[in-house]
Design goal:
The complex is a heterodimer of chains A (about 210) and B (about 70).
Chain A: H1 3-13, E1 18-25, E2 28-33, E3 36-44, E4 48-49, H2 51-60, E5 66-69, E6 75-76, H3 78-86, E7 90-92, H4 94-103, H5 112-123, E8 127-134, E9 137-142, E10 147-153, H6 160-170, E11 175-178, H7 187-196, E12 199-201, H8 203-211
Parallel strand pairs in A: 3-5, 4-6, 5-7, 10-11, 11-12
Antiparallel strand pairs in A: 1-2, 2-3, 8-9, 9-10
Chain B: E1 13-18, H1 23-35, E2 41-46, H2 48-54, H3 56-59, H4 65-73
Parallel strand pairs in B: 1-2
The chains are: A alpha/beta (about 210), B alpha+beta (about 70).
Amino acid sequence: MNWQVGYALKSIQEVRVVTGAENIRGDAIKITAHGRPDAVAVISEADFIDLALAMGYHQQYPEMHFLCGYRKGAVWEGAAIRYLEGQKIGWGNGGTLTSAIQDDNVKTASHKEFFFSDRLIRQLRCVTSIDREFDRIHSVTLADGRKLRIGMVREYEPTAEAVRALWDRFGAVDVVWNINPNGKPTQKAIEAGEELGCKVMKWDELQVLLKGR
Amino acid sequence: MFGSSLVRVGNDFDILVVGPSGEPLSRLKNEIRLAGKNLPLDVLYMLPPEAEETGFVLNEKCVPLLELARSRWG
């Protein structure tokens, strides 16, 4: 059994409503839970899940209800997200899968780390279009014509390293948005942003920036 | 180490690394990438002033890996 499938099975079996979880073949597992239809999840060990990989999994496991990027550092390409959502396949990390089983929304769940912040931006009337380039990178066009590239950082405590790593990996952004509601960017993180040429902020500040007031 | 995997089966193993940035950090990141090839590691990197500013070690009840290894394998 692949290592990530083993870990996933162990943590899924701990979920209160789950009555069984087994490896059916390759990276695919079947989950049975009280009062819920059986669910098939594919547990990927990939660091990067792009469109080709997502489509490949779907072809290999047509019965799949959920694609799980088990590595904490896994990054999802926007095109892969759009494909999966279009096919009514849930996507996200291990925590997203276990929550989705409990909430009985395996087929529609999306990465729980980014779910609320993605929705927050989409709800703003001043945002006219959004290109979700990657799970955590949104290029937004605003009603007044401005364009902003926003990168989300979800660490408990956004650090200078988290800011630099985001910039190195995804290129220049205008804003590094600390999406952890309990987090607070450290002084060094704010300074690292200033050195690179972006602002590190939380939602209250970002909201003001987007609304242009 | 910190987080839920200290007390029960979690989705991953949370590890905090406090140290300088630059070359030593790049080297360490490469080593951790190798060590985590078949492990769900979630590593948080902090500069020493950041660790102090956030009080993370105390607040999250971090346990030194060495101490943990000693307690598990004597």
